Amino acid sequence: MKSMIKTKVSTALESVNYPLLGEDLSKISSIESISINDHGVDIDLNLDIKAHSHENLLLMEIENKLIEHGLPNATVHLHSRVFPSPRVETQGHLKGVKNIIMVASGKGGVGKSTTAINLALSLRQEGAKVGILDADIYGPSMSTMLGIPPETKPILVDDKYVEPIKKYGLKSMSVAYMSKEKSPMIWRGPMAVKALQQLLELTLWGELDYLIIDMPPGTGDIHISLAQKINVSAAVVVTTPQEMALVDARKGIEMFNKVNIPVLGIVENMATHVCSNCGFEENIFGLGGAQKLATEQRVSVLGSLPLNSSVREHVDLGEPTVVKDPLSSISRAYIQLANNVSVALWRCNKQASPTPVLQIIG
User: Which domains does the chain have, with CATH numbers?
Assistant: First the structure.
């Protein structure tokens, strides 16, 4: 009896097309348990990504399909968990972190940090446990964007480790938390790399589904050193549609390919501008460049974000758009970006094999 019900449930799941995945639900879910009682059947179902904004509609669709497959009295309990990256599981000092995502750009001025913080907050809003590391040693901006007062300092634990600063449900760490206000970091490359590695490894991140690393612009020492020292799950490259930004974004993608870090895709920032007076929409920085680059590099465009002064105003106030105006069209675009990143990383993790561990036998 139970095996027959499980077969019906599995068949029903195969008939549910999950829009985020673009395939049937059986690919991204697993049946945890099936309980038969006097009132019908209780089904516990696990999803491999967290996308709370989609779950109610998904639940309705699953229940309708179960009715069609002869289970009218079935009750579905939908649970979500984030699938861990095989690359990260071997890292003892980050053992509670399931996935590490670098957010990078080939050049400055494309809105990488603003995108990184809103992406992190969107993943958090969708139900994930998220941390963010400000890896821009020379120009840290995380404290400003999150509205962290300058006098705020991390708590020291056991004279070695530090607690991340928490704001908006997000765990964050930045070199700015450790330095004096407005003091520049006058460090050579190796010093900057060592400082960043210590911030990453000595921060008590705890259990995280995603750790977002906001990388400095370019393709320098910090990118290469992190790739060599940390088992990063994947990278996301931010660009604008203009040709100069795309040239540098191409270099960024090629750098990640050379250090064997999968690129989930491209985020096209400042794609369009809508006039606040007349509503006219204009492609100020060009049209179609990101898609052309994505096709050339065999990656996807994860999101296309508008140029809007409110996005800049919100981070300047320390209240990123996803927090300040969660129902706006821009926030919805960030949520969609987070969903696309989640699915792309899920696919990447499913295909990846664990990073080999070198064993030395004496």
Answer: 2-80 (3.30.300.130), 92-351 (3.40.50.300)
